[in-house]
Write a structure and sequence with these properties.
Elements: E1 6-9, H1 19-32, H2 50-61, H3 67-81, H4 91-100, E2 104-108, H5 113-122, E3 131-133, H6 146-155, E4 162-166, H7 169-177, E5 181-185, E6 200-202, H8 210-218
Parallel strand pairs: 1-2, 1-4, 2-3, 4-5, 5-6
Helix pairs in contact: 1-3, 2-3
């Protein structure tokens, strides 16, 4: 490996298997507020920020609650459920292997700061990841590349030296717009996400090797 390179992980659906909880909570809140969840495509919102998602939903259904109120209700309920959310199988073993091979690791999640910090502490992610970027730290959410460019800068790396692991269409588009290579992680709980723009698609961290990472980082963009 020429120099130290970086791998940037999305959080929801890649590190923690949380998408079913997100869908359940969003359905509850939208219906409590008077909206019709059945008219939404939840996969369209995966990877976007809270403000983007709830602004769209409020406008679509004319909800009386403010965007801020909707966000706060959802955040509180999500944080309460984090202890019940499992890690994605083999993700920590894979992170450990990356660290042992000299890769710098980052996390770039559209989720809010409090949720990211709660997950960070719950699962001891500091052992593996040195840079954590949340959706509140950037002005534009995925598919805009800002969050990945921010993570690369904090890792001290150029975008072309980074690889992103993402489970959503918006995330894959953001990674490619950042000038990074991208692995699409096909999580069955993340809905029918179009990951076709990714450089490689996998269904399990068991199927992903350090050699795969080396090969992708050495391929021309």
């Amino acid at each position: 490996m020429t120099g130290v390179k970086g791998v940037i992980f999305d959080m929801d659906g890649v590190i923690i298997d949380s998408e079913p909880i997100h869908v359940k909570l969003e359905k509850e809140i939208i219906e409590e507020a008077g909206g019709d969840y059945a008219k939404l495509k939840p996969e369209d919102f995966m990877g976007t920020t809270d403000v983007q998602m709830w602004s769209t939903i409020k406008e679509q259904f004319g909800l009386k609650l403010s965007v801020e109120e909707l966000i706060n209700i959802c955040r509180e309920r999500f944080i309460q459920t984090i202890p019940q959310i499992p890690l994605v199988d083999n993700v920590l073993d894979f992170m450990a292997a990356l660290r042992n091979n000299g890769y710098k690791l980052g996390l770039a999640s559209s989720n809010n700061e409090r949720a990211v910090e709660t997950v960070r502490n719950q699962f001891g992610l500091d052992q593996y990841i040195e840079v954590f970027v949340n959706g509140e730290a950037v002005s534009k959410g995925k598919p805009d590349p800002e969050i990945f460019l921010t993570a690369a800068k904090l890792l001290g790396l150029q975008p072309e030296d980074c690889l992103v692991i993402e489970d959503s269409r918006n995330g894959v588009l953001a990674a490619k717009a950042a000038g990074m290579r991208c692995i699409g992680f096909q999580n069955k709980n993340s809905g029918r996400q179009d990951l076709s723009k990714a450089d490689l698609i996998v269904t399990s961290f068991k199927n992903l090797t350090i050699e795969d990472i080396k090969n992708l980082l050495n391929e021309p963009l």
